[in-house]
Write a structure and sequence with these properties.
Elements: H1 6-82, H2 85-106, E1 110-111, E2 114-115, H3 118-137, H4 142-150, H5 160-185, H6 196-234, H7 242-275
Antiparallel strand pairs: 1-2
Helix pairs in contact: 2-3, 4-5, 5-6, 6-7
């Protein structure tokens, strides 16, 4: 047949090669399409992953910034608090009372009020050392007392009579505390006639006068603030002053809370004062 129909043979051969070529092109186009499709998918996945990574990095940086700002605020507040001698004395007082309380709890056996437990004895020693540290800090209290007597804007109270009572009680309190501390720690520097216990007892009585006067003044302050609060609540609010009135009311409420906490603090101070 090939010899008889050479033209047909060549035509068929050419058609078969053409069909084969078209099939190969279609296959290559499909493969290329699949390749680009997977490439696009990979690119979209990479884009999503990159976006998520950027979001995680941003969140991490924000958390680091927040943590740093919180730490900075804490350190700044602590530095400001510790720069005040009165605040340090309050912290030491709290530590001393806390250690004394723990020594009472941890003591298993007692004889004549003296704990026999080793942990209790150690806590009592630490409490005593902190108490003596507070004696040293009281050397810085006399200038404040003298300033309160000379300055009408006293740190003790706005009431002149209350201010004088509190200031004069502290004016006698500090020298007695100095004498008691010196007699206990360096008896060679103090005359033998000086009785440290007597000095400490009378200084505590003067401190009690200070506490009672402070409580009376604080109670009057609370009553005055409550009257201002009631008066402000009963006053008709004007449209233009609503925001101002609400701010003033919040300030008064805050002052009342602070004054009541101060009253509680003074009441708690009477317990060790009576004991000593």
């Amino acid at each position: 047949i090939k010899h008889r129909h050479p033209k047909n043979f060549l035509c068929n051969l050419w058609m078969s090669s053409l069909r084969k070529r078209n099939k190969e092109q279609q296959t290559s186009e499909v493969e290329q399409t699949e390749k680009f499709r997977w490439f696009d998918n990979d690119r979209s996945v990479n884009s999503i992953a990159k976006t998520q990574l950027d979001d995680m990095t941003t969140t991490h940086n924000q958390n680091d910034t927040t943590a740093k700002s919180t730490i900075d605020k804490f350190l700044s507040a602590t530095s400001s608090y510790c720069a005040n001698t009165n605040n340090i004395d309050k912290s030491l007082k709290l530590m001393s009372y806390l250690l004394w309380f723990l020594s009472k709890i941890s003591s298993s056996n007692t004889s004549n009020g003296i704990p026999s437990n080793k942990i209790s004895i150690g806590l009592r020693k630490l409490s005593a050392e902190i108490s003596f540290t507070r004696y040293v800090l009281r050397f810085f209290g006399m200038p404040v007392t003298v300033d309160a007597l000379r300055n009408p804007e006293s740190p003790f109270s706005k009431n002149k009579t209350v201010n004088k009572i509190m200031a004069y009680s502290m004016l006698l309190y500090y020298p007695l505390e100095y004498m008691a501390y010196a007699k206990w720690k360096a008896p060679e520097l103090v005359p033998e006639k000086v009785n440290a216990s007597w000095c400490s007892m009378w200084s505590t009585r003067l401190w009690m006068i200070y506490i009672i006067t402070d409580m009376i003044d604080s109670r009057k302050n609370v009553q005055t603030l409550i009257k201002e609060k009631v008066k402000m609540q009963n006053t008709k609010k004007e449209k233009g002053n609503q925001v101002v009135k609400s701010k003033e009311l919040n300030e008064i409420v805050h002052k009342i809370k602070f004054a009541r906490l101060h009253l509680l603090r003074c009441a708690l101070f009477t317990l060790p004062a009576v004991h000593w």
